[in-house]
Design brief:
homodimer; alpha/beta; 6-phosphogluconate dehydrogenase C-terminal fold; 2 domains; six-stranded parallel beta sheet; elongated; disordered C terminus
């Protein structure tokens, strides 16, 4: 199939490379709001043709992928309602689903039946198409959240693309998706950003950071993530994220009381339960390269 | 020098192996509250002689190292006040300093002048002497927090031991030490334990954890740490930890308001500042194996 890629970052670039490597995609056109990014994708051999307009990028496409930060997707959907070929399946790689689907429903008209919402659970600390890899999705989960109106053949084609590049596909409701990732991805990102900001903003912050070790390094790795992308995610999934954050704050209130009163038993019980869970936990569909 | 090791875990075992490898330690006797642990240290070739009593382990020692969880150190100090040879320097590897020094001051009597409080910033996710390594401290920080009464020759000998195995030594006050590590180590551990416990205890917790990716994996790696050790640290450093936790909770309250009101600018500003700091941050004295 002919692919049109809208957004030339790590995920979009890796998707184009992976789908092409699997043989299911034969040509790739691309648009990016920063034209040099799409040209860079061509220079890297990931994209065949860079377009400076969405309408031009999607002309003749069999499949259109939204791979920008989620906050930019609604504007693209409005353009696709007008310019996407009638045959084209539309999909995305966004980390939040409920709000995007609601925008797609409002904007896409008839084309909404050809929109297959998807979220590959893959990525890494280093953003940018320079770090794209055709093997990024090997062993990863890809969540799809099709709606009642979504055409079965469209779902099957997108899921087959993902399976062909080594991912494990799971369908679930958009609501469940957003709840799950609020807890295991969006909240931890928020906490990591918050801790780094807190320490850095303290009068002795630079001195404290000087002695930070591997624990701090790993805990805060995700705080190096792209700020605009995570601003969009926090806002797009605000309801589920807010609920998880409120629960977490309740637990911290309890922990503060336990620390302040020196309640050794309460602390040990919580640490033991967490340590047991964490030690027995494996990550990802089958141990691949997982993130976001 | 002849070393007596009290506590045969990852840190104690690595210390014995590293100090011996550097040539500064010629023999090692060891005690552990679990006698099989000390025997295991002998079987691994890290320790020459396992003792079932502290008094026996420290007989003839030139240097005695406390390498148990910090909550068990006061009881050992009381025994050392009675049984440590007059020549022996006493030191430790504990992650908190103020409370331990106060206990040592109260319990050690004259021997307090020979007590050199120290904290090697090294470790890893896998506890246990089976994972001990003579190279664990290569490129790590070791913080010493000597007191006015601490004998200069005792400080110098301990610091020389650490330098000889590739560590970088820094002296600071015990108060500053505890403030720094409350922020960059103890608080992140608390948060990681709390997040894992929160998600695991939710009705759909197991399903959520099924989809956790690399971000969650790294963020929560330290939640696999030893619960008893971290209970002790949280209690021993309760004042500094409580202050950091309270500040962090204040920041989360602000973040909750920003998420709930959809304040894109405020979120992006915080994420940007954190991301900038985190990307430019290097970890450890010179890129070694750092933790705790």
């Amino acid at each position: 199939m002919k692919l049109a890629l809208l957004g030339c970052g790590l995920l979009g670039g890796s998707l184009a490379a992976a789908w092409r490597k699997s043989g299911r995609v034969t040509s790739v056109s691309a648009y990016d709001i920063v034209p040099a990014q799409a040209q860079r994708a061509v220079a890297l051999g990931i994209v065949d043709r860079a377009s400076s307009a969405v309408a031009d990028a999607v002309r003749d496409a069999d499949c259109i992928v939204l791979a920008t930060p989620v906050g930019s997707m609604a504007a693209l959907l409005a353009e696709l309602a007008r310019d996407a070929p009638e045959k084209a399946i539309i999909t995305d790689v966004g980390s939040t689903k409920v709000e995007l689907i609601s925008a797609a429903r409002a904007l896409l008209g008839d084309a909404f039946a050809r929109f297959v919402p998807a979220h590959p659970i893959a990525g890494g600390a280093m953003p940018g198409i320079e770090n794209a890899s055709a093997d990024l999705f090997q062993g990863c989960w890809v969540i799809t959240t099709p709606q009642e109106q979504t055409r079965a053949d469209a779902i099957e084609q997108i899921e087959a693309n993902w399976v062909a590049c080594g991912a494990s596909v799971e369908r679930m409701s958009a609501q469940e998706h957003d709840r799950i990732f609020a807890a295991v991805s969006h909240l931890p990102h928020l906490l990591a950003f918050a801790l780094v900001q807190l320490v850095a903003s303290q009068p002795d912050g630079a001195r404290k950071l000087r002695y930070a070790g591997a624990g701090f390094r790993d805990f805060t790795r995700i705080a190096a993530s792209d700020p605009a992308m995570w601003r969009d995610i926090a806002l797009a999934n605000r309801e589920a994220l807010s609920a998880e954050l409120a629960q977490f704050r309740g637990l911290l209130e309890w922990l503060q009381a336990a620390v302040d009163s020196g309640d050794a038993q309460a602390l040990e019980r919580l640490f033991e339960e967490a340590s047991r869970v964490r030690r027995t936990q494996s990550f990802g569909a089958d141990g691949g390269n997982h993130d976001v």
